[in-house]
Specification:
The structure is a homodimer. Helices cover about 35% and strands about 25% of the residues of chain A. By secondary structure, chain A is of the alpha/beta class. Chains A, B: Keywords: Amino-acid biosynthesis, ATP-binding, Diaminopimelate biosynthesis, Kinase, Lysine biosynthesis, Nucleotide-binding, Transferase.
Chain lengths: ~400, ~400
C-alpha cells in the first residue's frame, strides 16, 4: 500500500481512446492497492490551437490572459479522464491547479511553484478516491491563474509527489524509457533501467524531451524517485533516483548528440573584466541560446572567445554582434557551421579522470577531428563535423560497453 | 458616468472576427464614460463539442466533471475578448466565475446563484479597467466549479448588474429586440421599444429564446433594467423594465406562437386528490414537458384531463402512461397532433376582461376553431390546428393594432 503519482503527457491523452487507455493504467495502479494521484497535460494539439487563436486576436497576447486561455486545455483533460474513471466504476475527482492548492509566484507564463497546500488532495485520497490534477497550472497570491512554462506538467507531478511524500512518480510518455543513445540512429542502443538525476539532466536531449530538466531538478532536490515509462507498452521503464542507490559499474551511462551546431569565434576582444558578461548579456537579450563557451587568452591585452549556437541562430548572432561592435570592441568574427555535438554522460566519470582521454582516443582512432571540448563533472562534450556525428556516437557507444552490457547500473 | 453590464451570447462571440467586433461594442460603451462589466458565453458550438466529447467517454457523465468540462468554454472567450480589448489599447481583466465571486448552491448542472462577492470586480472597475466575466459558471461552498444551467450567462449578467446596482444590463444577441410577433412569419411585425418583465416572460418564445426566463425573473426581482439588442446592428433594442414606468395604451403587446403541439387526453381518471399530482409527477420524471393543462370533471367519480405536449414527446408520453396504467387507474387515452399554440400577451389585459372574448371573436370570424384555452393574468393561449396558425397570428396582430402602431408602450 503506497502512494503513486502518475503523469500522462499530451500524446498519451490525445484522443478519447487514449484517455480510456490512460484510465485503465490508472485503475491498474489503484487495484494494486495504491493511492493514486494522476497529473495530466492538455490533449494532443489543444495548446497549439489555443495559442493560434490568441495570435489571431493579438500580435502580443497579454500573459495573464494567455494563462487564462491555455489552462482550459488541462481542465478539459482532467474532467474527461475523471468521467472515464467513474464510468469504469472507480471513485475519482478532478482538480484544477488552484483547487489542488498549487501556489505559484505572481508571474505569468513561467511561474515557479512556491507551495502546495495538499489538504484537499489528501482528504480525497483518504476518501478512497483517485485524484486527477491539471498539470502546468497554479494560482498566484492574488488568485490569478498562472502556468509553469515548458515541461510544466512534469513539474506539477514531481512537486505533488514531493509534497505528499509519494513512493514514486511515474512519468508516462510515448517512449519506453531513457536509452544509452538515440535508438532511431544507433541500432544497439539499450534502455537504461536506472540513471541518476544528474545523468538524466545531462541526457535530457536523448529521447526527445522525455522529461523536462526543471522537473528532474525538482525531483533531485526533494529525492522523488521517478520512473519514465510508456503509456502504451506495459514494459518496465527507466528509474531516475539518487546516485547512492546505484552501483557504479558503468562509467559512461549514455551518449547524447545534437546536430545543426555552429561555432562562432569573436577574435581580439579586450581582456577586460566585463567583456564576457557584456557579450553574453547582449546575446541573451536577443534570445540567442549559447551552449559551449571556450575562452583562450592569446596575449595580455586581448582574448579570443568561441561559443556554439544552433545554426538557425547564426544570422541573428552575426547581426547582434555587428550592431554592438563599438560597445564590444572586438577585432573580428569567424564562424563554422555544419557541426555536431557528441557527449558522453555518466556519474562514474567523477572519480575516473581518464574518461575524457579515452573519448578523445576513440574519436582520433576513427579519424574524427574534435573542434571544441567542454567538460562537466559527469559529462564530456565534443564538437565534431556533422558528417562524423553518427560514426562518433557508434564508436563511443561501443567503446564504453553500452551495447550488449547489462543496463542496470 | 454610469455602470453598464453587457452580455454577449455564443453567436456574438462565435469567431475571432466576432470577438473583435464585440470588443468594439464594449469600447464604445466605455468611451461614453461608463464603467463596463462584460459577461460572455462560450464561442459558438464549443459547448456542443465538449458535450459530445463527454458522451464519447461516458454514457452518463458525472455532473461535477461535466461542469469542470463545460466551463472551459467561457474561460476561453473571456481570455480572448480581454486580449482583444488590451490589443485595442483599453485596460481590461478577465475573471472566471469563481474569481468574480459568484457563489452558487452546491449542486451541479443547474445551480442557483446564492451570492456574489463583488469585491474584486469593484476594485478592478475602480482601477479603470473593463472587467470581463465568464457567464454560466460559479463556485460552490466546497470550491467546486458549478454551472447555472440553460440561459446561465443571461442570469450571470443580471445577477452582477443587480449586485453592482448597475444602471442597465444590455443583453446583446443575434436579433435586434423583442417583436410584436415573429417577423420571419408576419411581415408587419414591429419591434417593441419596451415591455414589462412579466410580458417578457410570456413572450419568451418570440425571437427564439432571446432571453432566458430565469434571467427575466431575476431582473424583475431586483428591478434591473434590461435592454435586448443586436450585437451586429447599431439600432436601439427593446427595454424590459418595471411596468409602472410604462404607459398602458396597448392592451395586447404581442402575439406568440408555437407549432408541433399535440393534445393528449386521459379519460376516466378517478376523481381523487392525488390523481393529478401522480400523473404529472410520472410524466416529469420521464422528462416530458407539459404545457397547457385542462381538467373537466364529467361526473362525481371520474374526470377527464387534457394537456398539451411537444409532438416529439407523444410516443414516450403514451408509453409512460401505458406503463403506469394500473397505478393511474384511468379508462382510456386519446390524442390529437398537428396542433399549434397561439397566445396574446400584454399586461394591459389584467384590467381589461374583454380581451379573451375579443380574441375568440377574431378567431371565430376567421373560421379558426379553438381546441384548448388557457389564461393567465397577462396572457390568453389558444390551441388551434397547425394549418390555421399563421392566419390566426396575422388576424390577431391586426385586430389588436400591433401592426403600424407606435411600439413604445
Amino acid at each position: 500500500m503506497g502512494l503513486i503519482v502518475q503523469k500522462f503527457g499530451g500524446t498519451s491523452v490525445g484522443s478519447v481512446e487514449r484517455i480510456l487507455n490512460v484510465a485503465e493504467r490508472v485503475i491498474e495502479e489503484k487495484e494494486r492497492g495504491n493511492d493514486v494521484v494522476v497529473v495530466v497535460s492538455a490533449m494532443g494539439k489543444t495548446t497549439d490551437k489555443l495559442v493560434s487563436l490568441a495570435k489571431d486576436i493579438s500580435s502580443n497576447p497579454n500573459k495573464r490572459e494567455m494563462d487564462m486561455l491555455l489552462t482550459t486545455g488541462e481542465q478539459i483533460t482532467i474532467s474527461l479522464l475523471t468521467m472515464a474513471l467513474l464510468q469504469k466504476g472507480h471513485d475519482a475527482i478532478s482538480f484544477t491547479g488552484w483547487q489542488a492548492g498549487i501556489q505559484t509566484e505572481s508571474i505569468h507564463g513561467n511561474a515557479r511553484i512556491l507551495n502546495i497546500d495538499s489538504t484537499r488532495i489528501k482528504s480525497e485520497l483518504d476518501n478512497g478516491r483517485i485524484v486527477v490534477v491539471a498539470g502546468f497550472q497554479g494560482i498566484t497570491e492574488d488568485d490569478a491563474i498562472s502556468t509553469l512554462g515548458r515541461g510544466g506538467s512534469d513539474t506539477t507531478a514531481v512537486a505533488i509527489a514531493a509534497t505528499l511524500k509519494a513512493d514514486k512518480c511515474d512519468i508516462y510518455t510515448d517512449v519506453t524509457g531513457v536509452y544509452t543513445t538515440d535508438p532511431r540512429y544507433v541500432k544497439d542502443a539499450r534502455k537504461l533501467l536506472a540513471v541518476s538525476y544528474d545523468e538524466m539532466l545531462e541526457l535530457a536531449n536523448l529521447g526527445a524531451g522525455v522529461l523536462h530538466p526543471r522537473a528532474v531538478e525538482f525531483a533531485k532536490n526533494y529525492s522523488v524517485p521517478l520512473e519514465v515509462r510508456s503509456s502504451m507498452e506495459r514494459e518496465v521503464g527507466t528509474m531516475i533516483e539518487e546516485e547512492v542507490r546505484m552501483e557504479q559499474n558503468l562509467v559512461v551511462r549514455g551518449v547524447a548528440f545534437e546536430d545543426d551546431i555552429t561555432r562562432v569565434s569573436v577574435l581580439g576582444l579586450p581582456n577586460s573584466l566585463t567583456s564576457l558578461s557584456t557579450i553574453f548579456t547582449t546575446l541573451a537579450s536577443n534570445h540567442i541560446n549559447v551552449d559551449i563557451i571556450i575562452q583562450s587568452s592569446t596575449n595580455e591585452n586581448t582574448t579570443n572567445l568561441s561559443f556554439s549556437i544552433k545554426s538557425d541562430d547564426l544570422n541573428e548572432t552575426i547581426k547582434v554582434l555587428g550592431d554592438n561592435k563599438s560597445k564590444l570592441n572586438y577585432i573580428g568574427i569567424e564562424s563554422e557551421s555544419g557541426l555536431a555535438k557528441v557527449s558522453i554522460v555518466g556519474s562514474g566519470m567523477i572519480s575516473n579522470p581518464g574518461v575524457a582521454a579515452e573519448m578523445f582516443e576513440v574519436l582520433a582512432g576513427n579519424d574524427i577531428q574534435v573542434k571544441m571540448v567542454s567538460t562537466s563533472e559527469i559529462k564530456v562534450s565534443t564538437v565534431v563535423e556533422e558528417g562524423n556525428m553518427i560514426r562518433a556516437v557508434e564508436a563511443l557507444h561501443q567503446a564504453f560497453h553500452l551495447a550488449g552490457t547489462p543496463v542496470k547500473a
